[in-house]
Amino acid sequence: MPESTTESVPQELLDEAKDFQTTFQKAREEVSRVIVGQENVIEGVLTAIFCGGNVLLEGVPGLGKTELVKALSNVLELNFNRIQFTPDLMPADIIGTKIMSTNEKGQYQFEFRKGPIFTQLLLADEINRASPKTQSALLESMQEGSVTNDGKIHQLKQPFFVMATQNPIEQEGTYPLPEAQLDRFIFKLEVPFLSQDELNEVVSRTILKKPVEVQKILDGDRILELRSVLGKVVVAESIRDYAVRLVLSTHPGTDFANEDVRQFIRWGASPRAAQALIRAGRVRALSEGRAHISYSDIRHFAVPVLQHRMLLNYDGQAENISVSFLVDQCIKNLKEEI
């Protein structure tokens, strides 16, 4: 970023950036006390919460995905609900339904009974096990932060955050998420298996059964207050254009696409991806105490932002091409300035 732009940043914004950095680091440290390893996952989930986005976690069972959401609800002092998605789950099991009740005069009336989606942190466990009809019950909530029932709109308490999980190995009896729903997730984060030291630590904690008490760092109002700082972060025109060109490089029909993208990709990332790159870059800049975005901020979140928004063609599926590898190639071949 040009030096003159840095100098023109108001001192008040620099102070807000330092405050954001301190708070973000404290929250990450507290969650890390509960969750062993997974630093990138913790950073990504916290970034998504501050962005106002949702996260799709992909990993085998037993890696602490549920514990991560519980730890977040404690550190951030937010309400938490968990929904186990199954093939027989219905939309009404998520958003709620109307039931018949009686009032004080003994008259019958219909009353809306809210479902588990009326919370702030929602864990949609094994989301791909439910039917597309049930999966779509989350679309409005993830995008608009509201639930519509019988023509009436119910606003969800903010901040509202959905963390969905899916198992990448066991695909029998699952329903792949449609592109429209995948696009509602700001990140797709892959949860890796633990290292030897991390697995030893998990086993030791389990044997000793030592409870870990975390400190409450934030609440809902404070998160919304910190979100308001994001819009003040300086985004240079060249960096915004770099994010746009990076998204265009995922489309095989553009001049920015490389040979691998043209060969293996049927359709590239949506405009939401460009918006997500800027929003995530702003959070990363603030988490490092900066009031401006750099090129590295855009590249840092490129894989989790783009990998679930790119559709492989027949050749890509047949050769089992890694989409994250293609994103890395896009980053490698794209120049910062043109």
How would you portray this structure in words?
The chain is of the alpha/beta class and 338 residues long. The chain has 2 domains: 169 residues, 3-Layer(aba) Sandwich (Rossmann fold); 106 residues, Magnesium chelatase subunit I, C-Terminal domain (Helicase, Ruva Protein, domain 3, Orthogonal Bundle). The chain contains 17 helices and 11 strands. The strands form 4 sheets. The protein has a 5-stranded parallel sheet with strand order 2-5-8-1-9. A hairpin with a 2-residue loop joins strand 6 and strand 7. Helix 3 crosses helix 13 and helix 11 crosses helix 13. The N terminus is likely disordered.
Residue-averaged pLDDT: 84
Number of domains: 2
- The counted number of beta strands is 11
Q: What's the Cα radius of gyration?
A: 21 Å
Based on the coordinates given, report the CATH architecture of the largest domain: 3-Layer(aba) Sandwich
The CATH topology of the largest domain: Rossmann fold
CATH level 1 name of the largest domain: Alpha Beta
Structural class comes to alpha/beta
Task: Give the termini distance in whole angstroms.
Answer: 15 Å
Q: Can you summarize the main beta sheet?
A: 5 strands, parallel
The largest beta-sheet arranges its strands as: 2-5-8-1-9
Q: What is the element string, with H for helices and E for strands?
A: HHHEHEHEEEHHEEEHEHHHHEHHHEHH
Shape type: globular
List the total number of helices.
Answer: 17
Please indicate the percent range of residues in DSSP E strands (runs of 2 or more). Answer: 15-25%
Helix content: 40-55%
What's the CATH H-level homologous superfamily of the largest domain? P-loop containing nucleotide triphosphate hydrolases
User: Unreliable runs, pLDDT <50, ≥5 residues?
Assistant: 1-6
